[in-house]
């Protein structure tokens, strides 16, 4: 859990003295000008929110102070603390963004806006969402917050909500916990902010798997004294051995996280006693060689468990996580986990630089997202070095995300390339919506259809019942379309419209010529096959485009009619008129008989 030494009450309301004591505690390690800004922000929030309760009945002003207190424990600079205290102001009737900007600076004002926008997002649809939908929600959070500190404010606010979740109905508990599990806890994991991640995960398990949570908590608490005595003995023995080897070392019992234990039990199908890190210690030294020396000492004191040694110093995880992990068998025959790392490695691991989200979540790799998170890690790492926010404007430009994530009115997350417009968004929703698009509202305001969208914006498309796209949308200089999907849909629509028009023209032309020649309408199926067209409409479209003559087809039909008439007439000749010509018999007169004609005088030519 997040380690806090606070003078703030856990619930109820904070008295003026309690708030003053809290400010005095922060003043012990912060410059006077920072504390003065904090006092000003606290006063503004107190005036705005006094008497206001959150949906769960918790005092809103006290919740804001707890959020700032959590951020203070992460050793962040003053600006995110100010943003946390002022984060509910955008929903207040007296909200003035310009005033916040003038009093606290543009960075704080921007964070307040970003946090407010993120707070409005609903991931409740993620209850049945697939991994892609959940991933888009996480990316949307990253896309909105150009300043990583805004994300940390959001995570801290979510932690306050989870801590007081017992106040709300069971169905709300499960919904919020599920949302936290699939969005906020993995995001804390990606940023490597373990102090937030661990507590968020434990609280999620408490509300999503209450029976298993209670069982594990009971087992941990039931053998707590026995376990603490065992760990204390391990710390003493390992510390004495390191002192004898002249190795300065700091050894602690490692915190037990119920969610981590539950996940290992589930994944490895083992019982509580077989999970190695139920009993665990962590040794911190100054140098890398000392890490291996302490490891050797540990293996000389206790028998190592085969196959349970990982050297993340020689072979760091892809995200940069570094430490030695080993498991040994204690004197009582039960497993014990030992981690050894330098103090610098430990600081980075605890503060968020070595986020190992790939290892934990098994999500598919995304280079652009990884680069953006790497930029966030670098910001946090610079915080470690000098306690100040360094000038990373060049890196900010270099690692600017190439994708944006915008919302439909119903909260659906739509992924688009950077620079996409409301028209691109409309076609991403549905082809029909794109065709009928006539305008757009972005965050409630009418916006030009060629205006590029930004991550986190809520877009509503204004449509007509019937209609089609504008040919202007295909003009690359007009800037209406960026995505090939939308452009292809528009081209297909016009191609289909032209096709239908040509079919109609061809049909009219053919019917006119057929009527002029007074012949029956042709069988278009047979006619299309004769001229090698797939369908009758393709034949008619060719006529409409002038590729085929309607006169030619009408004449073809007329010739067919004549042939059919001749064949029919031939079939109708009376059989009685079909007389077989008499054969010439020997000694005959040699008279020629013409079939069908009687009494005709004939004379044979000499050549015959």
CATH-assigned fold name of the largest domain: Hypothetical protein af1432
Gyration radius, in Å:
41 Å
Oligomer type: single chain
User: Treating each run of at least 4 consecutive H or I residues as one helix, how many helices?
Assistant: 24
Span of the ends, CA to CA: 127 Å
Q: Please give the CATH architecture of the largest domain.
A: Orthogonal Bundle
Q: State the helical fraction.
A: 40-55%
- Number of separate strands: 11
Q: Quote the average pLDDT.
A: 80
> The biggest beta sheet, please?
6 strands, mixed
Structural class: alpha+beta
Content of β-strand = 5-15%
CATH 4th-level superfamily of the largest domain: Hypothetical protein af1432
Instruction: Give the overall shape, derived from the CA principal axes.
Output: elongated
- What is the CATH domain class of the largest domain? Mainly Alpha
Sum this structure up briefly:
With 608 residues, the chain is of the alpha+beta class.
Q: Would you give an account of this structure?
A:
The strands form three sheets. Strands 1, 2, 3, 4, 5 and 6 form a six-stranded mixed sheet that branches. A three-stranded antiparallel sheet has the order 10-9-11. A two-stranded antiparallel ribbon has the order 7-8. Strand 7 and strand 8 form a beta hairpin. Mean pLDDT is 80; it is low at 122-129, 353-365, 383-400 and 583-588. It is of the alpha+beta class and 608 residues long. It is built from 24 helices and eleven strands. Helix 4 packs across helix 8 (148-163) and helix 12 crosses helix 14 (288-301). 53% of the residues lie in helices and 9% in strands. The longest helix is centred in the C-terminal third of the chain and has 33 residues, at 484-516. It has five domains: 16-170 and 181-190, Hypothetical protein af1432 (Orthogonal Bundle), CATH 1.10.3210; 222-361, Beta Polymerase, domain 2; 367-398, no CATH class; 405-482, Ubiquitin-like (UB roll), CATH 3.10.20; 506-571, no CATH class.
